[in-house]
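User: Can you recover a sequence for this backbone? Please restate the input before giving your answer.

Assistant: Of course. Working from this structure:
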């Protein structure tokens, strides 16, 4: 029997992860994949009941220690409670997944209020900074410590109908690049630029059935919309020792999407 294990560097045993927005969709897939690789996982979601239910299901399926709790990442008190609960349960934090993010469509970008722009920035950008700061003392002591962010392709390409969301995600990219340089040898920081992955959030964002159908057949090299597992696999690589020489990067996972505006009219 061969002694070489090609998957050894992808295993996440002795890692403790927080996944924000992990109750469903992409966040759930990330939490499940990290747990399946051996990590202890705290699912932090605005919906506490959903977080706990999802955690219980993943724990049953993977045999890993997975917990869930309610957390509004725009509130410092909630962030602090999440971090302290994770450390109390798992003994530390090695892996932070800033997955929370949401934005709505605006037909006229110049009609978007300053208040809406600020609220998008609070949710999609500042929340990631705040929870990263709260996790810093534990990340800096952990082996293979990582902060990995759910970015968006619209944070790198024009998307005028998502002007508030795209601007906030673009800020996230730049902010996290700065943190990668700040942490340097202590913590690796990367962002995944996520392309079109159809989830329940599309309708809530204001994209009707016609637009969602068009997005199911995007103009990309692979020729299909993404699946949550496509994104989760990228997060496993970026958080595991397999990517130990990767930091300060924005990794596009979009089916080979062209660098043009992908949203249909």
């Amino acid at each position: 029997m061969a002694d070489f294990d090609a998957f050894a560097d992808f295993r996440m045993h002795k890692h403790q992860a927080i996944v924000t927005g992990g109750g469903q969709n992409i966040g759930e897939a990330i939490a499940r994949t990290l747990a399946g690789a051996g990590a202890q996982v705290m699912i932090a979601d605005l919906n506490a009941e959903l977080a706990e239910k999802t955690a219980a299901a993943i724990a049953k399926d993977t045999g890993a220690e997975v917990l869930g709790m309610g957390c509004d990442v725009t509130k410092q008190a909630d962030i602090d409670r999440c971090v302290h609960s994770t450390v109390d349960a798992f003994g530390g934090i090695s892996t932070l997944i800033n997955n929370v993010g949401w934005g709505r469509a605006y037909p006229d970008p110049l009609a978007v209020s300053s208040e809406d722009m600020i609220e998008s920035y609070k949710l999609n950008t500042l929340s990631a900074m705040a929870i990263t700061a709260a996790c810093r003392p534990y990340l800096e002591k952990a082996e293979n410590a990582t902060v990995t962010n759910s970015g968006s392709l619209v944070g790198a390409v024009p998307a005028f109908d998502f002007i508030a969301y795209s601007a906030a995600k673009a800020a996230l990219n730049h902010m996290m690049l700065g943190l990668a340089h700040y942490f340097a040898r202590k913590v690796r920081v990367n962002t995944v630029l996520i392309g079109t992955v159809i989830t329940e959030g599309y309708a809530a964002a204001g994209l009707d059935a016609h637009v969602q159908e068009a997005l199911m057949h995007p103009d990309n090299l692979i020729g299909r919309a993404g699946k949550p597992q496509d994104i989760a696999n990228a997060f496993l690589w970026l958080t595991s020792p397999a990517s130990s020489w990767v930091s300060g990067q924005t990794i596009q996972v979009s089916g080979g999407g062209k660098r043009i505006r992908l949203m249909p009219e």
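That completes the design. The radius of gyration is 18 Å.
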